[in-house]
Write a structure and sequence with these properties.
Blueprint: H1 2-26, E1 31-33, E2 44-48, E3 52-57, E4 62-66, H2 75-100, H3 112-149, E5 159-161, H4 163-183
Antiparallel strand pairs: 1-2, 1-5, 2-3, 3-4
């Protein structure tokens, strides 16, 4: 029962992490314009994401523009896109595989060992999915931080971490932790002991002992 509860908790955490990775990938707030310097116009807030850039006016109106060409984008942005999309696809596969091995499901009830192995395999896929998202968000965040502290970067073009990065970090951590919990349902190897040999009982001597 305890392992089943841990398995269910791991699946819920992995599912929430996968949803968070999708939300983070779709959000345009991967980096936001910094207002740390002087003489910066704050009438609008500028955001940039993986797929579009947005400008929010002081009146609350938001105007977004999708990136025109894929080939004109920076290589780091293209790699971040690929990692996040791969993370989403791997997470989807991991969810299906893990559901098959859940103890509360009726699939593969005849072979409990294979059923538990499916849950473990799904957990491994979810962990890889979380690691891919963690690498993508950390790589992008490192790029933003390096540009921010670069003295050659103009003050009015510096960006800070956006909310999508924080959601991506939290979601990838949830996915990794949930996948680890799913892996805890790994079937244990039963130690086989050799069969104990029965010793014949000493037959009660009915005759007399001879010296």
């Amino acid at each position: 029962m305890a392992s089943g509860g841990l398995q269910l908790l791991g699946f819920i955490m992995a599912f929430l992490g996968w949803i968070g990775i999708i939300i983070s990938t779709a959000m345009p707030q991967w980096k936001m314009a910094s207002y740390a310097g002087d003489n910066i116009v704050t009438a609008q807030a500028l955001y940039e994401g993986l797929w579009m850039s947005c400008a929010m006016q002081s009146t609350g109106q938001i105007q977004c523009k999708v990136y025109d060409s894929l080939l004109k984008l920076e290589s780091t942005l293209q790699a971040t896109r690929a990692l996040m999309v791969a993370s989403i696809l791997l997470g989807l596969v991991g969810m299906f595989v893990a559901v098959t091995g859940m103890k509360c499901m009726k699939c593969m009830e005849d072979d409990q060992v294979k059923k538990m192995r499916m849950a473990v395999f799904g957990g491994v896929i979810v962990i890889i999915s979380g690691l891919a998202a963690l690498v993508a968000t950390s790589w992008y965040g490192n790029r933003v931080a390096r540009a921010f502290y670069d003295p050659f970067t103009p003050v009015n073009t510096r960006f800070e971490f956006g909310s999508a990065l924080f959601i991506g970090w939290a979601a990838s951590s949830l996915a990794i932790l949930g996948g680890s919990f799913l892996c805890c349902s790994c079937p244990r190897r039963e130690t086989s002991y050799p069969p104990t040999r029965g010793y014949p009982k000493n037959a009660s001597s009915t005759g007399k002992d001879y010296v």
